[in-house]
Amino acid sequence: MRTLRVGPVSTRVDVASVVCSLVAWLLTLAVGALSLTLGDYRIPLPLVLETLSGHGTLILNDIVVNGRLPRVLVGIGVGTAFAVSGAIFQRLARNPLVSPDLIGVNAGAALAAVLMITVLGSGWIPAGALLGSLLSAIVVYLLAYRDGISGYRLVLVGIGVTAIISSVTAYLLTLADIYAAKSAVQWLAGSLAGRTWTHVVLIGAALVVLLPAALAGARQLRLLELGDDLARTLAGRVELSRGLLILVGVALAALATAAAGPIAFVALVAPQLARRLVAERVAGLLAAGALGALLVVVSDLVAREIFAPTQLPVGIVTAFLGAPYLLILMARANRIGRGG
Amino acid sequence: MRLRAAGLLLCVAVLAVSVLLSLSIGNQHFGAHDVYLALADFSGSDNDRVIRYLRVPRTAAGLLAGAALGLAGALMQGVTRNPLADPGILGVNAGAALAVVGAIGVLGVHSLTGYVWFAMGGALVATVVVYLVGAIGRGGATPVKLALAGAAISALLGSVTSAITLLDLSTLNEFRFWVVGSLTLATGPVIGQAVPFIAVGIVLALVLGRSLNQLALGDELARSLGTRVMLVRVMAGLAVVVLAGTATAIAGPIGFLGLAVPHVARTLVGADYRWILPWSMVLAPVVLLLADVVGRLVARPSELQVGIITAVIGAPVFIALVRRRRMAAL
Amino acid sequence: MLRKSVLPVLLLGLLAGCGTPTADNPPGSTITVKNCGIDVTVAGPPKRVFAAYQPAIEMAHALGISDRLVGTAYLDAEVLPEYAGAQAKAKYYKNLPSREELLAANPDFVLSGFNDVFSAGGGSDESFGSRKSLAELGVQTWIFSPLCPTADGKGDEAIDPASVTMDNVYADLRGLGKLFGVEDRAETVIADQEKRIAAVEAKVKNAPRPTVAILRPGLEGGGLTVSGGPDFGTVLIKQAGGVNAFADLTAKRNVKIGVEELIKRNPDYILISGCCDAALTPASTQPDVDKLLANPAFQNLKAVRNKHVVPWLFANHSAGVRGAYTTEDIAKTIHPDLFK
To answer: Which residues contact A68 (CB under 8 A, 6 or more apart)?
Structure first.
């Protein structure tokens, strides 16, 4: 019965998903354009456009093309990546609270980044953060593996590993001088400040490679959603696609964290919003990605302007926006008890 | 029974040895005789001063915070029937931390005496929120739900904490040393002020042993045995907040001690909370003091804060628990 | 691509527009001075200088280029009395500006007393960007040589201890004198510094050498932060006829130690290094001095028993034109009978 309904449902949803994504993308672009005009150096929109077309002064060019534009683009990229990663994890674990934030991916990246900022004082942070997040993800996965992977065990082991890593991170912060410590705390909160075209290339390349993989996996994901019992006929392939999806999800979160630090709650909130807007039971990866981008770009604008000229890291704002939603979500997430 | 009592006495003896080690080992090592002289016949020499004004306070802090965290962990595990309960996991520390940062950064409180109340208030609010959120829905406050709620709320509180510290550099500078968890934060007078709080918490906790045993049978059965389930929960919650809050105020958020030690106690004495509680109370300071002694030796001329050591020892216990138990049992 | 081709043209235009050629610098000729391994090239004396941190601000005033300051940022304490008048007229930023804010001031030269403003530091919004990236905009930069990092973009952790000398301060004065066309003034300043320091050195030549610790105020997590070997304080204490009690700790400028370590080393003098407010005076750190004096654990310290715990300033032990002043100041403290 159910399988029969999958076809029509998915078609209908795809339309809604596309519309939702489009609207979110348009809003993202509008906010992005606004972001290009605001800052410590006020530049009206016509001048921004002039600069973008290559006719600005050297300084305008530096501020708009080398400063604000990559910042907005990195924001869009990491927002998309976090949200898609979150959507994948939430699908796999069938648990709205399972997000890469909680399973150790971010903690490893954070430790590596803080190590580089405070102790080594050198190196390209995204590279170290990427390495750190992959390592910690592998450790969590191995520790949680026991005749297969259970979503809950993954999360709980993630919490444990995160705790150890965070305490070492906190220790490193006490070793650093206060300015390095501040810069590290800023990174830890998730920040788009000072992001360059290299970061854009990093997250862009990640999306180009991983997004299609995630979308292809989404079909499999829908099969998985029917439950392992029904999909048992495809047993081997289910395990395989589950593994690949975890890999894609971890890679997206790791690369996004490498580019912008662990921006809180985007991976958790954006897919949930997408679900509410689009439909209850369908992945809606694109919609989630679009909403993630919008969330980050809006939050960064707020973060830059609210205490100007002092800037907050974007992650603080996403946390403030995401927190109430999270509480409502947890209160409503009775399903979490299912099997746990 | 007799064995467990004898064991407890043995634990107390081990604790006494740990105290002696904590007083004598450090940047400079002292013999037992030096320690005795410094305490009994204070001459004002360098050694006497180091022992009396540096080692004694941090040892006292270790004793108090250790006992408090061991009890708080055992209580939380008992009252939630949750083997993963710990003040760190369940967001209590994050609540205390945020309150302390708010006190430093927003209200300008700079003495540890001032922090205590904020730490306890923050611990209380976080505990209540985590429990309420975790208890909603089918199955009540299951371990997984509580752990998730704790992690999520810790993340949320952590963000607010970061925001405050980033806006004010001097707050960050105070906070970053506090948040690691260390026995050298509190001075003598502050530790003195903590004593009554911890004492009340200890009495409250030890009285609850029998009730926790009945609670372990499930709410229904406990009720039929005449236990006032709600009252026990509230009392235990109160004790946890006072113990964990005060411990956090004097030593910062020290993680995993409250998780690991009651499990060790349970392995040694069985499931009877009348024994788990006192054993946890004695064993936790042993671990904390020894961890602190290790911390003094590994990074000279600086020191490694005790919170790092307990996390490195305690978190593997947590992971082992998660792995060992079937999810259904959690 | 476009930016690259347009750059040289714009750069020339900018320099031609701003740099008014002086007599000994005929149009078209440029002056190049090496600073921390980077060629600093100007076509005529810079006209719009941004000075970041106390040592840079004081050096700018000492060189008599106060009227060319378009901005000064982040004082650690009150400036020396001889510069107070000039500083009162300068535009002051309480916090370091962001790159955008800096560029909005339209400087052609950035003089920094510390190295961290040019370090990437995890993409902190308080970084001006690397020196190379500023040079591309026609903004020349200078870091105080005793704090040269080993590579552009690096910070405090990359100081070469051999460069921590008063001679390097003189080299900076000469280099800047040449760039700014104030060589005579620079030589006057150097001569004055040399004369005053030599006078102190002569006086303390045969005196016993007490040990001096420079301590940050406050117990940080139960530990203390002291100035180690690479700190400029080591040089200044030596000139004043003392020995830095922690000179053997050479890993960093600021070193964390346990409280018991201070008791073990038992320095003769303790200078409390208060910091970071434009209105700060030594008296501001008196409360920290009192706290230290009252701590029962420290009662046997020679410095405590003899009341040789001195309220002092972080600004005093930064490399720069305070060198002579601080040498005299420390000498008066630790050799009171020689300086009656």
So the answer is: A35, A36, A39
Determine whether the interchain pair A163/B315 forms a contact, defined as Cβ–Cβ distance below 8 Å.
Answer: yes
Which CATH number, 2.30.29.30, 3.40.50.880, 3.40.50.1980, 3.20.20.80, labels domain C206-338? 3.40.50.1980
Pairwise CB contact (< 8 Å): B159 & A97: no
Give the pLDDT confidence of A174-196 residue by residue, as tens digits. 887 777 788 888 888 888 988 88
Measured in angstroms, the CA of C133 and the nearest CA of chain A are apart by: 9
- A193 and C124 within 8 Å at the Cβ level: the answer is yes
Of B27, B169, B173, the CB nearest to C264: B27
Q: What number of residues does chain A have?
A: 340
Out of A167, A178, A264, the one facing B173 most closely (by C-beta) is A178
**Which candidate in C262, C273, C300 is best for mutational testing of the B interface (most B CBs within 10 A)?**
C300
Contact between B50 and C260 using a beta-carbon 8 Å cutoff: yes
Model pLDDT for residues B86-126, shown as the tens digit of each residue? 777 788 878 888 888 888 877 877 666 677 778 888 888 98
User: Under an 8 A CB cutoff, do A194 and C97 touch?
Assistant: no
> Does the C2-159 domain belong in CATH 3.40.50.620?
no
Summarised one tens digit per residue, pLDDT across range C329-339 is 999 999 999 98
Q: Which of A198-202, B8-12, B113-117, B269-273 has the lowest mean pLDDT?
A: B113-117
Chains that touch B (3 or more CB pairs under 8 A): A, C
pLDDT band, very low/low/confident/very high, at A27 (cuts 50, 70, 90): very high
pTM (2 decimals)?
0.82
Which of B25, B42, B49 best tests the C interface by mutation, with the highest count of C CBs <10 A?
A: B49
- ipTM, two decimals, is 0.81
Chain A interface includes C103 (CB < 8 A): yes
Whole-number average pLDDT of chain A: 80
Question: Is C15's Cβ below 8 Å from some Cβ in A?
Answer: no
CATH number of the CATH domain containing A193 = 1.10.3470.10
Rounded Cα distance between B21 and B24, Å, is 5
